[in-house]
Design goal:
Elements: H1 2-28, E1 38-44, E2 47-51, E3 66-69, E4 72-79, E5 86-88, E6 95-98, E7 102-106, E8 112-115, E9 121-122, E10 128-129, E11 136-141, E12 154-156, E13 164-165, E14 172-178, E15 205-206, E16 219-228, E17 240-241, E18 253-256, H2 263-281, E19 289-294, E20 299-304, E21 309-317, H3 328-337, E22 350-352, E23 357-359, E24 363-364, E25 368-375, E26 381-390, E27 425-426, E28 430-432, E29 437-452, E30 454-458, E31 464-468, E32 474-476, H4 493-497, H5 532-553, E33 583-587, E34 593-597, E35 601-602, H6 610-619, H7 630-633, E36 637-650, E37 704-706, E38 712-714, E39 724-732, H8 756-765, E40 795-796, E41 803-804, E42 817-823, E43 836-841, E44 847-849, E45 858-861, E46 876-886, E47 895-899, E48 905-912, E49 917-922, E50 927-937, E51 945-948, E52 951-953, E53 962-965, E54 973-976, E55 978-980, H9 986-1019
Helix pairs in contact: 1-9
Length: 1022
């Protein structure tokens, strides 16, 4: 019916009106930030069925239904959540979301709102808010330390520009850059840097590039030393002990090191000390000692213009902190600088004679320096400085290093010429004009012997047993030592019967009439293939074999058969818990032997009985040396030994005088020898410049005489009378004849000092690390002995640290090694940790390791020595990462580049990351998280309800609002400094508007047409 069409047209007008409403709203909000466009959707209305239709049957076809619609209705208004265009604003709090998700706001009732509009601002309390509503943006708020926890509850986000970043103690310091590999290379012109007058004492290195490790607050003093006055005043006893002189700073004190102390300050301290000393001796007396420093060589120079002399001077350090003893390594290195250059006598002391000028060892400064500020936990800054110096020390001896290659730290060979066996030396003959005879001695360095030292322990009953390692003598309960070697060179039968003889080839191997030659290396002695490991093994095995020999036979001793040894009436019992190796000898990586006692004591006694101690001290030394002080005289001393062969010869003509060694140049008589002296029938086994070992064949008495031409010819042993051959003896080169012979008087060998420098060097090397040997090695009191430093090796079972000898070296130079030294502003009462170390580089110039340390060194120092709970500052501790330093032949650029400590800072700037993290940038350079923006989502965005201001709330069909960080769970990322504009497409909206307008116009025509039809219908009645 026509009336129905009127209502259909009306529904069309209504629907198109709604469409135009939606379109007009979209167009109106085309510039609304974050606006989501709407879209009207329509449904047709219920259809009137005129005929429902029938299906086909038989030959009859089917008929379709006949239905007439009744109009249109608004089905829905959909919100389009497509991405809008992004506009860059550069404003921090303008944010957009690329991808899915909404910013989440809350009002004062904590109702959540969602929006895509990111044009936020701060309110007066620093909260991030929507400027139109004041609703606050929510997220996760970081802790005061800038940490965002995973389970942190949602809360309004706030940017508080009054916020402080707390100070942070430095935990890591990182260095990088290159250290010039040409420095110190003998093939390069790049020399190491020697110290200058302005060089800071905290940055000193020795000549080999080893850091001294001095620290702020160290006190330099005279550890020992004497001023010998040529004409002392009556009230002064000479010599003057320098370590007892108080110049106003303490006994023997030169100066206290501060962070600004220089070489020039130390030079002045020396001069002030000597001036004060002589004024104390006698008012008006002038010092004849003037100390200078040579900038060109890095050496101190001691000039003595007077008649007095300095003897046995050694510079050291007072104890640090509460340790009660000087720092071992720093004390050693400092002391070894102030010795006569080259340390010719190996005493490690300084001696300046009257009217003499003496230079010390060279002192180096760092080849590369840098500094950086580190911080404690309160934000206090401290400047630390690091110096790098190439290591030019000769390499440490290894297990495989042969004896001929062994050197001291200054490159001096222990074996003459570094050749094994060396050419023998011939002594000047001992002439006897009364009998027309001469004694010639050929000496060849050959072995190592023990010239003093005891090992002591208690048996199971508490009896004290002491073994003298120089000759195998034994003492029980502190009584006098009894030696197994009798005056005729034989072994005491009591020792043999009771198993107490330790002179055999497998033990101490002491030369005697039965066993000529020998030493700790056995009869073979040094060979071309003798190594450091051979030395270590033989020393350890032979000492332990001697200890085991005696200890294992103690319970077998029959007290009734022993007379000389003063065996206690009750006898002995086996010692408890005696290990297989009472003494352990090891070789360290830096070429030192360590001696550790696992039972008993080497160099002291295992008893506290004062009588035992006195007896041991008074009886342990050999010969007429006398008693050694307990703390200095009981060490085990090793000495180079030599095979000697001596012969007594007479002249061919009894009326002629014996010849001298000058007459036997190159093994033959000098034909120019015509000074009236006769020709000596000098017996030689063979030509000493031929097969050298034949010179020392035991019992070889072949001899030679001269023909008319002065040439040697082999003669008949019986042809000449009065010739006596001593055979081969072992001589300890420090103390004269070690073994005697019936043929030769012992006096003929006394004081013989062949190869004295090498022998002295060996004794110095086998002394406590950092010290040489006292110049008065004979045991008499003297000015050059350092108090408390043992001569020789001391190892006690109750000492947790092994005795370490001086370093032994080999030929060459350490390459790819750089030492570092860090100066820190520690309180003078505290000792910093790990301020020195070594860097090893591989052959490709890359970092390899931190010397012997497996990990990055961790430095620590206390700036004020006060308890933090009592107002002090905490200890500063940080890892010094040097792994990024390289070692190439290029300019040095190595320096400390960065550290992670901070003072306190205030919030200066803010940035927002893509995942919504709000990062605060503080004035101290620190960055901290202030919070993290959370994005919201729902299961059905179309179900959200719009409440104006581009806000949405949860609707009945939207699902609950869920929050998460940006970039996860399908959420988009946050872009700070840009805004998302409306997603309205004007072109599309105008097109839709035209379509809606035409539809509206057409529907109005339906109504007009219907009206006209109804009019005609009414007119039919007329």
């Amino acid at each position: 019916m026509t009336v129905r069409s009127l209502f259909v047209g009306l529904s069309g007008l209504t629907a198109m009106g709604h469409d135009i409403d939606v379109i007009s709203n979209n167009i109106a909000n085309v510039n609304t930030v974050g606006f989501r466009a709407g879209r009207a959707a329509f449904d047709d209305i219920f259809y009137q069925t005129l005929f429902s239709g029938v299906g086909a049957s038989g030959n009859q076809g089917g008929i379709n239904p006949r239905q007439i619609g009744t109009g249109v209705r608004l089905a829905s208004v959909d919100t389009l959540f497509t991405q809008g265009s992004s506009q860059s604003t550069g404003r921090l709090l303008d944010m957009s979301i690329e991808g899915n998700g909404f910013f989440v706001l809350v009002d004062k009732t904590n109702t959540k709102y969602l929006t895509r509009a990111g044009n936020f601002s701060l309110d007066d309390q620093g909260y991030i808010v929507d400027p139109g509503t004041g609703y606050r943006l929510i997220g996760k708020v970081a802790s005061e330390d800038g940490v965002i926890l995973e389970d942190q509850a949602e809360a309004p986000l706030q940017i508080d520009f009054s916020r402080n970043a707390p100070a942070r103690s430095t935990g890591n310091v990182i260095a990088s850059g290159n250290f010039d590999a040409r420095i110190g290379n003998p093939t390069s012109d790049s020399e190491v840097s020697t110290a200058q007058k302005t060089t800071n004492l905290l940055g000193m290195f020795n000549e080999g590039g080893t850091p001294l490790g001095l620290i702020n607050g160290d006190v330099i003093r005279f550890e020992t030393g004497f001023l010998d006055l040529n004409d002392p005043p009556d009230h002064i006893q000479s010599p003057i002990n320098l370590s007892s002189i108080d110049s106003g700073k303490g006994e023997g004190v030169l100066m206290t090191i501060t962070s600004t102390t220089t070489m020039q300050d130390l030079q002045q301290a020396f001069n002030d000390f000597f001036s004060t000393t002589v004024r104390q001796i006698s008012p008006g007396m002038a010092s004849g000692i003037e100390v200078g420093f040579d900038n060109s060589t890095g050496e101190f120079q001691f000039t003595n213009t007077g008649s007095n002399s300095l003897n046995g001077v050694r510079i050291g350090l007072t104890p640090r902190g509460e340790s009660g003893k000087p720092p071992e390594e720093a004390n050693r290195l400092l002391g070894n600088l102030f010795v006569n250059q080259g340390d010719p006598d190996f005493t490690r002391t300084l001696n300046v004679g009257a009217e003499e000028v003496v230079r010390t060892e060279v002192i180096r400064r760092a080849d590369s320096t840098s500094s950086i500020d580190v911080y404690d936990s309160l934000g206090n800054a401290y400047t630390v400085s690091m110096g790098l110096a190439v290591d030019t020390e000769t390499p440490a001896a290894t297990r495989e290093t042969t004896v001929g290659d062994l050197q001291d730290s200054q490159g001096r060979f222990l074996i003459p010429g570094g050749v094994v066996p060396p050419k023998p030396e011939f002594s000047e003959p001992i002439l006897d004009a009364a009998t027309n005879t001469a004694v010639f001695t050929a000496t060849q360095i050959s072995n190592i012997v023990a010239t003093q030292g005891i090992y002591s322990f208690e048996d199971g009953s508490g009896n004290l047993v002491a073994i003298r390692l120089s000759d195998g003598a034994i003492s029980f309960n502190g009584n006098d030592f009894a030696s197994p070697i009798l005056s005729d060179g034989t072994i005491d039968q009591e020792f043999l019967d009771n198993g107490l003889d330790v002179t055999g080839d497998s033990m101490l191997n002491i030369p005697s009439a039965v066993n000529q030659g020998g030493g700790l290396l056995g009869d073979e002695g040094f060979t071309q293939s003798t190594t450091m490991e051979d030395l270590r093994r033989n020393i350890e095995n032979r000492i332990n074999a001697a200890i085991q020999q005696v200890s294992s036979h103690l319970s077998d001793i029959d007290p009734t058969t022993i007379i000389r040894l003063n065996v206690p009436a009750g006898g002995f019992t086996a010692p408890a818990n005696l290990p297989a190796k009472p003494i352990t000898v090891e070789l360290t990586e830096d070429g030192s032997f360590t001696f550790r006692s696992n039972f008993g004591n080497l160099g002291s006694v295992a008893s506290t009985n004062s009588t035992y101690l006195t007896n041991i001290a008074n009886s342990q030394a050999r010969g007429d040396v006398g008693a050694w002080p307990k703390d200095e005289g009981l060490g085990l001393v090793f000495d180079l030994a030599a095979k000697t062969r001596s012969v007594r010869v007479s002249t061919v003509d009894p009326g002629d005088l014996p010849a001298t060694t000058d007459d036997f140049a190159d093994g033959r008589v000098d034909n120019n020898y015509n000074d009236g002296g006769g020709i000596t029938g000098f017996i030689q086994s063979v030509d000493p410049f031929g097969d050298i070992n034949d010179v020392f064949q035991i019992g070889n008495t072949d001899y030679s005489v001269l023909d008319n031409n002065g040439d040697f010819v082999i003669g008949n042993p019986a042809a000449l009378a009065g010739i006596q051959d001593s055979g081969v003896h072992l001589v300890a080169l420090s103390s004269g004849a070690y073994a005697t012979s019936d043929d030769l008087d012992d006096a003929n060998f006394s004081g013989y000092q062949a190869f004295s420098q090498e022998a002295t060097a060996l004794r110095a090397l086998f002394n406590q690390r950092g010290y040489g040997i006292a110049g008065n090695f004979d045991g008499a009191p003297g000015v050059d002995r350092t108090t408390g430093v043992p001569i020789g090796i001391v190892a006690n079972a109750d000492d947790p640290l092994p005795f370490e000898i001086n370093t032994i070296h080999r030929d060459g130079q350490n390459r790819n090694m750089v030492n570092f030294q860090v100066a820190v502003p520690n309180d003078y009462r505290t000792v910093p940790n790990k301020t020195t170390g070594t860097l090893f580089f591989n052959t490709r110039g890359r970092f390899q390791s931190y010397g012997n340390a497996a990990q990055t060194p961790t430095l620590s120092f206390d700036p004020d020595n006060n308890d933090p709970l009592q107002g002090g500052v905490p200890t500063v501790q940080f890892a010094l990462d040097l792994k990024n330093i390289t070692y190439f032949s290029a300019t040095s650029t190595a320096q400390m580049q960065s550290q992670d400590g901070r003072p306190m800072g205030t919030l200066d700037n803010v940035s927002i990351t893509n995942n919504g993290e709000i990062l605060g940038i503080f004035t101290n350079g620190d960055t901290q998280y202030l919070g993290q923006i959370l994005l919201g989502s729902v299961n059905n965005e179309g179900g959200l309800l719009q409440v104006g201001s581009t806000l949405f709330v949860k609707g009945p069909n939207s699902g609950d609002i869920k929050t998460n960080q940006a970039g996860v769970d399908g959420l988009g990322v946050v872009k700070s400094g840009s805004l998302e504009l409306s997603n309205v497409d004007l072109a599309q909206e105008f097109t839709r508007l035209i379509v809606a307008q035409r539809a509206y116009q057409a529907n109005s025509r339906v109504i007009t047409t219907g009206d006209q039809i109804l009019t005609e219908l009414v007119n039919l009645k007329r």
